[in-house]
UniProtKB/TrEMBL annotation:
Predominant subcellular localization, coarse grouping: membrane
Pfam families: UPF0220
Spans traversing the lipid bilayer: 13-36, 57-78, 90-109
Key words, A-Z: Membrane, Transmembrane, Transmembrane helix
Membrane topology type: Multi-pass membrane protein
Domain of life: Eukaryota
Record's protein name: UPF0220 domain containing protein
Family that this chain belongs to: Belongs to the UPF0220 family.
Organism: Asbolus verrucosus (Desert ironclad beetle)
GO cellular component: membrane
Length: 118
């Protein structure tokens, strides 16, 4: 993404927002241990954040992640693919691939964590 910004002068600075929110969702999704997600009770008396709060936070993280992919698709198609005057379409592909790889990294990190680490 840094090379895209350095090489191509974006008309709109909002093109970096999907990448920023994708990174935020990667952090939110992966900061929650799996042992907290798999608790059998939704509410616990001993902690301030029960299992319901943790699952809600995980849901919000994945919603942000899917939203960044949708936003990157919108940027790719609306500003680069459908624009007949735009000759160089690589920045649109770069923005989309950047967000897709962040999403894949978040899912892989979430799935590959083991219970032994916690």
């Amino acid at each position: 993404m840094i090379s895209l910004i350095a090489e191509y002068q974006f008309e709109d600075a909002l093109y970096i927002l999907p990448g920023l929110f994708g990174t935020l969702s990667l952090i939110v999704v992966n900061m929650i241990p799996l042992s907290f997600v798999n608790q059998p009770h939704l509410y616990t008396d001993n902690t301030c954040c029960g299992s319901l709060m943790i699952k809600t936070c995980l849901l919000i993280g994945f919603m942000i992640s899917f939203g960044t992919i949708i936003g990157a698709c919108y940027i790719l198609f609306n500003d680069y693919i459908l624009d007949q005057e735009e000759q160089n379409k690589w920045p649109g592909y770069g923005i989309f691939l950047h967000n897709l790889f962040i999403f894949i990294a978040a899912v892989l990190l979430r799935c590959r964590k083991s219970y032994d680490n916690f």
